[in-house]
Each structure stands twice: as structure tokens, then as C-alpha cells.
Design a protein that fits this description.
The protein is of the alpha+beta class. The protein is about 30% helix and about 10% strand. The protein folds into 2 domains: about 5-150, Nitrile hydratase, beta subunit (Cyclin A, domain 1); about 150-245, SH3 type barrels (Roll).
């Protein structure tokens, strides 16, 4: 995986950001709203938990979109661009690229609208119909009830609390949920979460099928140089079972 997914313990990358506002610029709220609406109208919700009658919602958005897709878009960026852009600028890039790939807008149209915006500003936004619609109802329902990854446990967990395990050194695929800095490291299982957890879509490194998830405790000295650690600290990470092997 590219540099932006293996940052644990890396020093001097950038000054610490002490911003306390969730949204620093007004446009960031709109990007968050677009992403939320895309998740709430995603076509996979017809088979999700809880059940949504997404086929009955009169939306022109017919694609599959989740947090995983947003993260995958960020991972696909050039590392220099990833660190140069603000948080919601990364979101904007991922969402824009997705709409181009899905055919909702062409790259030429996007470039033309971008140039117009930079030249003359956004102009007046279209009037919003405040009367509640089926789309509004679906978005509110999704915000209230979400999209649970929890599934019934089909097989017992392979590992138990107190067991020493090793995190696999999995070759990086196009998208992963395994942080780079713990690959190959030894840890202790401190919690086995109830049930099994699915992922939004299958990945090349084994996610997708519902499986147990574990909370692992690492000794910092097993991961980082002595100068980077507090000897009294413990580092925890929640990991899918596919990424763990017996020590």
C-alpha cells in the first residue's frame, strides 16, 4: 500500500493540526452531505441490515457507494497529492472521480464546470424544495439506522483472549484495512467481538466474507524505535481475522 496507509510512528511528516471545528469551510458541509446522500441511496442497501426498500426510492443515483469506496479513492491518490490536499478536498476528489467513472458526468464537463467556478464563483444555488420527499425520508432513515456490518457467526473464532498471534504480512492490494506498521508484528488477543463482521465489498486481501474481529494489544517496543515510545503505553488495534495467524 502507498505511503499514506503506513504512517504509524512516522515522524516529521507534517505539523500537528489542532483544528477543533468539524467543518472549517462552508463547502465542506456540502461535500459531507453529498457523500452521506450517496451512501443512503446506494444500490447495495437492498441486501443490507437493516432492510431498506431502496428500489422504491425515486433516485437517479443507481450506484454502489460506501465508506470503503471513499477510502479506496483516497488510497488511490498520489502520496504527494494526498498530503497536499485538505481532508474534504480528498473527499471531493474521490467523489468527483467516481461520478466520472460511473458516467454521471464526463471529465470534460467536470473540467469546464471547474474552470467556470474558478473564474466567476459558484453563483446562485438552485432553489431547494423543502417539501419532504421519498429521497429525504430514505436519507433520514439511513442516518438514523445506518448500515450494520454485523452478521451471524457461521464458524467459531480461530483465536481466544490471551492468545499470542502474529499479524500477517499481506501483500498490498488495491485496497486494504490492514495498517502497514503492524504487519508481521506480534500481539495479544484482548477481546473477541461478538458475532461476525462483513465488509462492504470483497478485497484482494480477503475481506468481504463475514468473519470474527479481534482487539489486539501490541507492545510499543515491538513496533517502534525506543525514542518514539512511552514504556508505560499499550497500542491497540481492531483487526479482521483474515489478517491474523497463530504465533
Amino acid at each position: 500500500m502507498k505511503l499514506q496507509h503506513t504512517l504509524g510512528g512516522l515522524e516529521g511528516l507534517d505539523p500537528i493540526n489542532f483544528e477543533t471545528e468539524v467543518f472549517v469551510e462552508p463547502w465542506e458541509q456540502r461535500i459531507f452531505g453529498i457523500h452521506t446522500a450517496m451512501m443512503a441511496l446506494s444500490n447495495h442497501l437492498s441486501t443490507s441490515l437493516p432492510d431498506y426498500e431502496i428500489d422504491q426510492v425515486p433516485t437517479e443515483f443507481k450506484s454502489f457507494w460506501t465508506w470503503g469506496h471513499l477510502r479506496m479513492g483516497a488510497e488511490g491518490m498520489h502520496p504527494f497529492e494526498y498530503f497536499r490536499l485538505r481532508y474534504y478536498e480528498k473527499w471531493l476528489g474521490g467523489i468527483s472521480g467516481f461520478f466520472v467513472e460511473e458516467g454521471y458526468i464526463s471529465q470534460t464537463e467536470l473540467d469546464e464546470r471547474t474552470a467556470l467556478f474558478l473564474e466567476s464563483g459558484p453563483g446562485e444555488l438552485p432553489a431547494v424544495d423543502t417539501e419532504e420527499t421519498a429521497i429525504d425520508t430514505q436519507v433520514v432513515k439511513y442516518l438514523t439506522e445506518g448500515d450494520s456490518p454485523l452478521r451471524p457467526l457461521l464458524a467459531p473464532p480461530k483465536f481466544a483472549v490471551g492468545e499470542r498471534v502474529r499479524v500477517k504480512n499481506v501483500p498490498s492490494g488495491e485496497h486494504t484495512r490492514l495498517p502497514g506498521h503492524i504487519r508481521g508484528r506480534v500481539a495479544e488477543v484482548v477481546k473477541v467481538y461478538d458475532g461476525a463482521f462483513t465488509y462492504f465489498f470483497p478485497t484482494t486481501d480477503g475481506l468481504g466474507t463475514p468473519m470474527p474481529v479481534y482487539s489486539l494489544a501490541f507492545k510499543p517496543e515491538d513496533i517502534w524505535e525506543e525514542s518514539l515510545i512511552d514504556s508505560k503505553s499499550i497500542y491497540y488495534n481492531d483487526i479482521f481475522e483474515v489478517y491474523i495467524e497463530a504465533l
